[in-house]
Design goal:
The chain is of the alpha+beta class. The chain folds into 2 domains: 4-50 and 134-171, Alpha-Beta Plaits (2-Layer Sandwich); 53-123. 51% of the residues lie in helices and 15% in strands. Helix 3 packs antiparallel against helix 4.
Length: 172
């Protein structure tokens, strides 16, 4: 059986949220939701799993912190120790208070930059990639809901009309 995709356009985020909840309760599969701004609670209503992006941010921060400790120990203690302002340069522990700002900055630098790269790779956003937005109004003030079904298309269209969809388009 072939699957049919139906695109429903809404003009209010609360109506969209209620429609997503009702479609999930009716066991319809929502392919994609396009919104002009983040809608609070939409990810839970659509049944999306929690993100693991915070874990990667922590790992990237640890990598940045480790790099900062290694870099400062190598440059300021092992390679070319200097007497700057009378502070000793014999061990890393003696110089640690002076290194705290650098450790903090490199932790944030690595976490931020690697998170941007991770976001682009995960979202499959590459330079010069063509937009995949099915309706340009979703970048302004409309919300689009793509639902795929192999069942009765007319029943789904009727359900979307009762859920206050402003426009309904069918794609085979």
């Amino acid at each position: 059986m072939s699957s049919t995709t139906i695109q429903a356009i809404f003009d209010d985020d609360d109506v969209l949220l209620r429609a997503v909840k009702d479609l999930k309760a009716a066991d319809y599969h929502i392919e994609e939701i396009f919104t002009p701004f983040p809608v609070h609670g939409l990810e839970k209503a659509a049944g999306l799993p929690n993100t693991r992006i915070a874990i990667t941010a922590f790992i990237y921060g640890v990598i940045g912190f480790s790099f900062a400790v290694w870099m400062m120990n190598y440059m300021m203690v092992l390679d070319w120790p200097q007497n700057i302002g009378g502070k000793p340069s014999f061990t890393f522990a003696e110089n640690m208070p002076a290194f705290v700002p650098i450790m903090f900055e490199l932790t944030v630098f690595f976490a931020a930059h690697l998170m941007v790269i991770t976001f682009y790779m995960r979202s499959k956003l590459w330079p010069f990639k063509k937009a995949e937005n099915p309706d340009p109004r979703t970048t302004d003030d409309h919300f689009l809901l793509e639902v795929s079904t192999t069942d009765d298309v007319k029943a789904l269209e009727d359900l979307l009309k009762t859920l206050n969809a402003k426009e309904i388009k069918t794609k085979a």
